[in-house]
Amino acid sequence: MAESSDELRARLSDEQYQVTQHCGTERPFSGAYWDHKEPGAYHCVVCSERLFDSTTKFDSGTGWPSYFDATGGAVTTRRDESHGTVREEIICAKCGAHLGHVFPDGPPPTGLRYCVNSASLAFVPE
C-alpha cells in the first residue's frame, strides 16, 4: 500500500518531498550525488527501487547526477511542457516519484543523459 502524503512528509526531507512529489528541482552543484564517484547503485528515495548503477554515471558538467542508462524497466518517461519548454520527465516506474529529465545528448552507447536530482536518490554502496 502506498504511503500517504503525511507519511511521506514525515519520512522525507522537505527537499526530497518537493522534488519527488511536486516535480521540484534542486539547484545545480548542490545535491549530494552530482560529483559522487563511489561504486554502487542509486535507488529511489521513496520506494527503494534500484534505478541507476554507478557504472553508467558520467560527468555531464551540468551539476546534477547524470547517467547514460537506467536499470531495465525502473524508469519511465512522460512529456513535460512546464517552464515554457518541452522535455521528457523521468519518473520511478514503481512509485511514480519525479526523478528529473532525460535528454538525447549523452555519451555512447545510448546517447542519453538521464539528468537526476540527488534528492530523489538513495545510494547503496557495492
Structure overview:
GO terms for molecular function: metal ion binding; peptide-methionine (R)-S-oxide reductase activity. It comes from Botrimarina mediterranea. Residues 5-126 form the MsrB domain. Helix content is 13%, strand content 32%. With 126 residues, it is an alpha+beta fold. Strands 3-4-8-7-6-5 form a 6-stranded antiparallel beta sheet. A 3-stranded antiparallel beta sheet has the order 2-1-9, with no helix packed on it. Strand 1 and strand 2 (50-53) form a beta hairpin. The chain is globular.
List keywords for this structure.
2 helices, 3-stranded antiparallel beta sheet, 126 residues, Met_Sox_Rdtase_MsrB_dom, metal-binding, 6-stranded antiparallel beta sheet, 13% helix, metal ion binding, single chain, 32% strand, Met_Sox_Rdtase_MsrB, peptide-methionine (R)-S-oxide reductase, alpha+beta
Provide the gyration radius in Å.
14 Å
Mean pLDDT: 95
| Number of H/I helices | 2
Spatial ordering of strands, largest sheet:
3-4-8-7-6-5
Uncertain segments are none
Please estimate the helix content. Answer: 10-25%
Please tell me the CATH architecture by its name: Beta Complex
Overall geometry comes to: globular
CATH topology: Metal Binding Protein, Guanine Nucleotide Exchange Factor, Chain A
Which series of helices and strands comes N to C?
Answer: HHEEEEEEEEE
Q: Domains counted in the coordinates: how many?
A: 1
> Given the helix and strand composition, which structural class is it?
alpha+beta
The amount of beta strand, in percent, is 25-35%
- The CATH class, by name, is Mainly Beta
How does the major sheet shape up? 6 strands, antiparallel
